[in-house]
Amino acid sequence: MRVALWLALFGAAQPALPPLFRDTTAAAGVVWRHDNGQSPDRFLLESTTGGVAFLDFDRDGKLDLLFVNGGRTPRGRTGASPREALYRNAGQGRFTNVTTAAGLLPRKLNYGMGAAAADYDNDGFADLYLSGYPHGVLYHNNGNGTFSDVTARAGVSNAGEWGASAAWFDFDQDGRLDLFVANYARFSFDDPRRCEFAGQPVYCAQTAYEGRPSRLYRNLGNGAFADVSATAGLTGLPGRALGVTAIDFDDDGPVDLFVARDASPNLLLHNRGGGVFDNVALAAEVAYNPEGVARAGMGVDAGDVNGDGRPDFTVSNFDHEYHALYLNPGRLPFTEATVASRLAEHSRRYVGWGTRLVDYDNDGDLDLLTINGHLHEMIGQSNRTVAYREPPLLLNNDGRGRFSRVAGGPVFESAYLGRGLAMGDYDDDGAIDAAFVSLNDPPVLLHNEAAAGRRWLGVQLEGTISNRDAIGAKLTLTTGRRALTRWITGGGSFLASHDRRIVFGLGSDEGPYTLTIRWPSGRTQALPPLPPNRYHRIVEEKP
Fold first, then answer.
1. Which residues pair with 314 in a beta bridge?
2. What pLDDT shows up at residue 78?
3. Model pLDDT, residue 198
4. What would the mean pLDDT of 437-450 be, rounded to a whole number?
5. Nearest-angstrom CA–CA distance, 325 and 323
6. Omega into 543 within 30° of 0, i.e. cis?
7. How far apart are CA 72 and CA 472, in angstroms?
8. DSSP code per residue over 353-417
9. pLDDT digits (tens, 9 = 90+) for 414-425
10. What is the C-alpha end-to-end distance of the chain, expressed in Å?
11. CA-to-CA separations, 64 to 27, 39, 272, 348, 388, in angstroms, rounded
């Protein structure tokens, strides 16, 4: 007792708590480094690149990692052509770089942004769409550890556009995944915008760039896609789009879209069937902040924050705009809970990018991880409350949608120029891990230590009538005391693609654990009680 009092009074060092997330980048063998091709022209796209994806590209049951690079700029510092890095999961926490063997080519005339992985042709192997400027790239997975560039044949190049995040989802419920590409702004390397601070070149504000409409490509089922942006109602909605997530927000069956946009009003695209979307963002009160001003939205994610069985949305924004939280009451408008949830308090100083609602401690409540980093190198000279490099933000949910900041470990006490964030359980222990990209630095791979010893139940769905990845599925797990609802979404976060498996954190909940699935096809499937602490592969029943 006296020793404890002495320590408290005189400030002697206390034993360090184990980290909630441990940096395993070096131990995993990940040595790639991001390169944005920074130039004296300060092209704005240099400040927004850096995608990442978790995917099992070789179908061996282990999650692999893909990192997306930037590229060359006309007067940039980059010599050799930057390239992506594909790391194969070798097990035991180790990864092997197989980029060249897999056939992923160096970028020469194309600047890279993000990644979206999904099995668009339902052959059992994850394919890759890489967004960028002046076009995107679609890689078809050949099923033998290699990819082929099929962009031209597929017709999804998004030619002439600066594509940011992308999302695979089945908007017309025909069992084939379609592709949405969030386009940012009208841009050309031949038209640099000149802005300075204290006589030094800096990135111009986003408002110096005219926003562009996003694009929707319908999967025709023969390896080709059709651009249906006009008939879907997208061409009349220009704006600087950066993040997108696909989820059925109103529980009517078809999958909808939330698009986070930068100093342009956010979009909430309600899928009313027949290939048409209505923008209901104004009615939902998610287009602007409460003062009627468009925030600088970067990343977006969806999930049930307050346990009522309905999907809510979170959007990462610029410093002093606050990262936003919109609660879904089951009707329009949504309830903005940015202040009430304490998200405003915790995020005020940060410029947020990748963001993910994730139950990191497996207690059954969705927490929030956001990756931050400023755009302006000299921001500290004009605003001493804001830093250029910023720490990630880990927030714990009390189960009622109120967040508290937690010390996640040394990474959360360090500063980065964070951009893309992906989540996935790379060692299959039921604890969801993370990977993020930092501009012009090595990426960071985080192993989740927080959920060790806690019960969980994992689910991997395989569609038969629905798309094989089951994107758009709604899963409800009933325990002895509550129901937990999760969705398999398209997109989410920023420039990222995630583990398609769902992990239900069980906390102290007793069984039996019964699962009900509403598949993207609309069919409902009820499962008998499932044992915890393992993954269950569930195949959609055919009629």
1. 301, 325
2. 65
3. 79
4. 97
5. 7
6. no
7. 37
8. EEEEEE-TT-SSS-EEEEEE--S-TTHHHH-TT--SSB--EEEEE-SSS-EEE----GGGGS-B-
9. 999 999 999 999
10. 68
11. 15, 32, 36, 34, 31
In angstroms, the CA 269 to CA 377 distance is 35
Structure tokens at 338: 């940015």
Which pLDDT belongs to residue 13? 41
Quote the tokens at residue 459. Answer: 């689910």
One-letter amino acid of 234: L
Reading phi first (left if > 0) and then psi (alpha if -120 to 50, else beta), residue 313 is in beta
Q: Whose CA is closest to 182, among 166, 197, 199?
A: 166
> What average pLDDT does range 493-517 have in this prediction?
97
82, two tokens: 């930057």
State the greatest distance between any 2 C-alpha atoms of the chain, in Å, as a whole number: 76
- The answer to whether the bond into 333 is cis (omega within 30° of 0) is yes
Closest CA to 232 of 255, 261, 210, 211: 255
Distances (CA, A) of 370 to 70, 390, 399: 21, 11, 18
DSSP H stretches of helix in 234-297: 281-284
**pLDDT tens, 151-198?**
999 999 999 999 999 999 999 999 999 999 999 999 999 999 989 887
> 338: buried, middle or exposed (CB in 10 Å: 19+, 13-18, 0-12)?
buried
Give the Cα separation of 516 and 532 in Å (integer): 16
Burial of 526 (0-12, 13-18, 19+ CB in 10 A): exposed
CA 216, 248, 299, 286 torsion-angle sign:
positive
**Nearest-CA neighbor of 50 among 165, 209, 173, 129?**
165
The first and second tokens of residue 379, run together, are 């921001």
Closest CA to 267 of 249, 248, 280: 280
Q: Read off the pLDDT of each residue in 453-480 and give the average, rounded to a whole number.
A: 97
User: Residue type at 478?
Assistant: T
Of the pLDDT bands very low, low, confident and very high (cuts 50, 70, 90), residue 16 is: low
**3-class SS shares of the chain: helix, strand, coil, % to 5:** 10, 35, 55
Say which residues have a Cβ less than 8 Å from residue 424's Cβ, sequence separation at least 6. Answer: 54, 63, 432, 433, 435, 498, 499, 501
Tell me which residue of 319, 482, 458 sits closest to 400, measured CA to CA: 482
Dist. CA 84–CA 128, nearest whole Å: 12
Taking residues 94-115, report their average pLDDT: 93
Task: Note the pTM of the prediction, 2 decimals.
Answer: 0.95
Q: How far apart are CA 249 and CA 284, in angstroms?
A: 11
